[in-house]
Amino acid sequence: MKIGKIVSVEFDKFKVRLFSTTRTSTVNINGQIYYFGNIGSYLKTTNSTSATIICEVTAVLDYSVESRTYSAYNLDSSKELYVKPIGTIDEKGEFAMGVGIFPSLYNDVELVTYDDLHTILAQGDEVTDGIHHTIEIGKSKSLINYGISLNINRLFNIHTAILGNSGSGKSNTIAHILQEVFRKEDNYAQGAKVIIFDSNGEYPKAFETGLSGNIEKTFYKPNAEGKNSFHLPYYLMNLDEWLAFLMASERTQKPFWDNVLQKCYKFYKIYSAKDSDTATRFANYIKWKTYIVLSDIINNADTDSTRMTIAKGAILKMKGLCNKFPNDIDAEVLNDLQNFFDVCNDLCTIWYGNNNDSMTSGLPKFVCVGDEEPQYVYTEWNDQRGNEHFDTETTYRRKNGAFIQIEEDSAIAVDEENLEYGQYYDYNFLKTAVELVLLEEEAKGNLRIREFTSTLVSRLDVFLNNKECAFMRDCPSTFTSPEDYLQKTFGIGDGDNRTQLIVIDSSEVGTDTLELITSVVSRLVFDYRKSKYGEERRKHPIHLVLDEAHRYIRKDAAYILKENIFEKIAREGRKYSFFLMLSSQRPSELSQTVLSQCGNYVVHRIQNEIDLKYIYSVLPYFSADYITKIKQAVPGEALLFGNFVPMPLMVKIDKAVPDPDSKNCEIDKEWFNMENKEAQ
C-alpha cells in the first residue's frame, strides 16, 4: 500500500510527504493491522534498479499547507516523515544492510508488510534433520507483536556483548537465551559447553529447573562445602599468573619467583620419594646449598670480618630452614645436620687480632670429591699461627661433633630436578624455598633483595593463610595435568562432553581473586583448544559467559596479568571454536580490543554519556540515532545489532522462567510490611 512520496533525498535520510488520503497511522491489509508513521516503524521505496529500499521512521513532522503545496502529486497532507535507509532487498529477494543506489525524488513510499519482514528477518527453518536452528528472543518494539527469532549459528559462532545499566535486563537476557537452548527436549543440546563466571551469584536459580532432563549441569562455588566446591589448583598456574597474583614485577622478581618454584619442587621431590634415603638426601642437599652460600659469601665480601658476619647470619637462617620440614627425620640425620652447622659456625669465629681464613681454607673439605667414599669432617683447635684458631680435619672414623662429607653428585642430581608447567609441587615448601633463594641472593651480594621482594612475600602469606584462597590450596585430589583438571572439573576432553552447563559462583571472592580464577580457567581452556587441529577444532565448541566483565576485562588499566587472556581469546578464539559472551554495566571500562572484536551486541538502557560515547567510538557502524533508542529503553528492552540480526532491532526480551536472582529490594514492603515485623 502506497502512503506517500519522497520529496527530499540526502545521504543519510529521506523526507516523505504523505498523501492526503493517508489520515491514520494504521491500516488493515488482509485482516492484518499494520502500524506506520510512528517512530521506529518501517517503510519501503525503490530505486532505479527496482531494488527495494527498507527505511526506518526517525521523525514525524507537521507543516503548514499554506506555505507550499504539491497538488500535482496529491501531496496536500500536513504530515511529513523523515526516514533512514537501512538496507536493500535485491531482485533475488535477499536482504543486505546498506544502500548502493538511492531512490529518486517523488518515488512512491509503501508499507512494509509481514511478507517483507519475513524476507528480511527470516532465520531459516526452526528444525531440519533433527537440528535446531533458531531460538525465540522476544517481540519487536517497532513491529507490534512480531516475534523475533535468532539464528543459533549466527548468535553463538562469534563473540557477543550484552551491555546496559544495572537493572536494565542483562541477566534476564543471558538466562533466557540459554534457557531457550537447553530446554529443547528433542535432539537436546548435548554438544553444548557453556561456562558461566557468575560474579553476583544470580544464575543458579535460573537453571535449577525447567531445562531438558538430558542436560547435565553443575553449580560450583569457591570454598563451598561438598561436591559443588570449586577448586583451582595453584600448581596449574603458570609463572606469569603467579607473578600477577603476587603483584610481582616482571623485570626483577620474575627470575626470583621462578627460582622459588624450582626450589619448592626440589624439596617436594625429595620428600615425595618416601624411601629410607629421603632424610639423608634432604640433609645432603641442605648441606650442599649451605656450602654454596658460604662460598659465594667468601667470593663477594670485601673483608674477613664482613665474611664472618654475613656467614654467621646465613648459617643461622639455613639452620632454621630445617625446622620447617616434617618431624619424622631420623635422629642420626638430625645429629649430622646439627654437627654440620656447628662446624660452619666454628669456622666463622673471629679472634681478636686474627681475622684469619679458617672458613676459606675449611670449606673445600666439606665436599666429597669424585667417587671417593665420604669422610667425616670436624674442627679442632690450632694456635700455631699466633692465636687460637679452628681448623677442619677429615677422617673415616666418626668423631664427636663430626659430620659426613657432602656427596656433590647426589645434590646436583636433586638440583637438576626441574619443574615443568603443570607438574604438582607442595605449597607447604614455598616459604622454605623463598628463604633459601633470599639467602642465595644475599650471598651473591644482593643485600636489598628482602626489601625488593617484601610485597611478594606478603602476598604469598595471603595465599598460604587467607581463607579466601583455600580453594586454590586444598584440592581433594591431585590432578595429573591441566588436561586432567579440565576433564574432571568441566568435562572438557577428547570425547568427553558429559556436562553442558557449568556455573561458577564467584560472588564471595575479591576482585584480584576473581580476575585470577577467570583468567587461569580461560587460559587452560584456550591452551587446550589450541592443541587441536583441522576438523577437531570445530568439534565441541566452548562458550564463556563473563558476568560483570568490566571487573576483569578493563580498558587502559594494569591487569594483574601481563596480558589479559580475554583479549587474546577475543582476537583468536573463533579459530579454535572458543567464544565469549560478556555482560557489563560499564562499557566505558571494558577493553576496547575485546568490545570491538564482538560481532553481536545486545544493548539495554544506558544513560551514562561516557558509556554511550565509548560505544559510539568503538563500534563504527553504531549510528547516533541508536543512542536515543538506548537512552529511552525501558527495563527488558534492548537494541540488537550485529551478525545475528539482518538489521538493528529494538526488541522486548522475553522473560526468563525461572528468572535469575537479580531483583532489586522493594524498600516500601521491607519497611512497612507487618508480616515481616511479626516474623521478627
Task: Please give a structural write-up.
This protein has 680 residues and is α/β, with parallel strands linked by helices. It has three domains: 2-121, no CATH class; 147-233 and 478-670, Rossmann fold (3-Layer(aba) Sandwich); 239-465, no CATH class. It is 35% helix and 20% strand. The strands form six sheets. A twelve-stranded mixed sheet has the order 13-12-28-27-26-14-25-24-15-23-16-17. It has a six-stranded antiparallel beta barrel with strand order 1-2-7-6-5-9. A three-stranded antiparallel sheet has the order 20-19-21. Strand 12 (134-140) and strand 13 (147-151) form a beta hairpin. Helix 6 (253-272) packs across helix 12, helix 7 runs antiparallel to helix 8 and helix 8 packs antiparallel against helix 12 (430-443). The two termini are 65 Å apart.
In short:
With 680 residues, the chain is an alpha/beta fold. The protein contains 23 helices and 28 strands. The protein has a twelve-stranded mixed sheet.
Please give the structural blueprint.
Elements lengths: L1 E8 L4 E5 L7 E4 L2 E4 L6 E5 L5 E11 L16 E11 L5 E3 L10 E4 L2 H8 L5 E2 L2 E2 L1 E7 L6 E5 H5 L3 E4 L6 H13 L11 E5 L5 H4 L9 E6 L6 E2 L8 H8 L6 H20 L5 H23 L3 H18 L9 H17 L10 H5 L4 E2 L7 E6 L8 E6 L7 E2 L1 E2 H8 L14 H14 L5 H4 L1 H12 L4 H4 L8 H9 L10 E5 L5 H20 L11 E5 L18 H8 L5 E7 L7 H6 L2 E4 L5 H10 L5 H9 L4 E6 L6 E5 L13 H6 L1 H6 L1
Parallel strand pairs: 14-25, 14-26, 15-23, 15-24, 16-17, 16-23, 18-22, 24-25
Antiparallel strand pairs: 1-2, 1-9, 2-7, 3-4, 5-6, 5-9, 6-7, 7-8, 10-11, 12-13, 12-28, 19-20, 19-21, 26-27, 27-28
Helix pairs in contact: 5-6, 6-7, 6-12, 7-8, 7-9, 7-11, 7-12, 8-9, 8-12
